[in-house]
Amino acid sequence: MAEIPSRRPTFEVSHDADPSDVLLAGFSAYGLAGLTAADYLVDHLDLEPTGHVRTEGLPTITPFTNGEPRHPTRLFSRPDLDVTVLVGELFVPVQLGEAFADAVLDWTEAEGVAEVAVLAGVPMAHAPDDHRTFYVATEDYRTGRLADSDVPPMGSGFLDGTNAALIERGIESPLGAAVYVTPVHAQAPDVEAAVRLVETVDMVYDLDVDSGPLREFAAEIEQHYAELAERIERKESDTPNDRMYM
Fold first, then answer.
1. Residue 245: inside a domain, yes or no?
2. Does residue 5 belong to any structural domain of this protein?
3. CA atoms of 214 and 194, how far apart (whole Å)
């Protein structure tokens, strides 16, 4: 198991503009489906960078493209769209999920964000008919967003790490919270899984996003995330092996 630094890592959100009522997030995890989906939403909704999460005391990465560096965990929005997207390229170990989620949720509470939804891929045994998106959501989120949708609930199991902490805060507060989950395969990124997540949030939030180009640029996306995926696989020993979804 990877070592956690002796000094407890800290997370701090810095934001340059008022956030939207809705926060959508995708994080570095097995299959990179949620991260790929969130990144795609940023590109195809023409969102602008509006903030980032600063991390201290945790081994970090500094992504770059064409020689231009960027923060690994970034916030994007635009004035005429009531959605802010959080793209998290930094892998946060399960043990630090609660600390990371607390920092994000303390910020959302202070800024009046009404709901948080995470896009996630989960490694689980599944049949071809299970290649769809499921939800785990608080009652207020289900009532407000999913009453008229055909997104099915995840049957049983448990969440861990950041996703678990986000949902737990939603249970205990007025924050509407959901995790959209879809099965992922070993390859990273699992583009088909990312497409399912994009199509689900597009339907739920009426974002008018075309998922077609995501499939077309699968090779380009795979190259972009190849090194990051290797890092995630090396750190997967931090994740319990007995996670179960049914």
1. no
2. no
3. 8
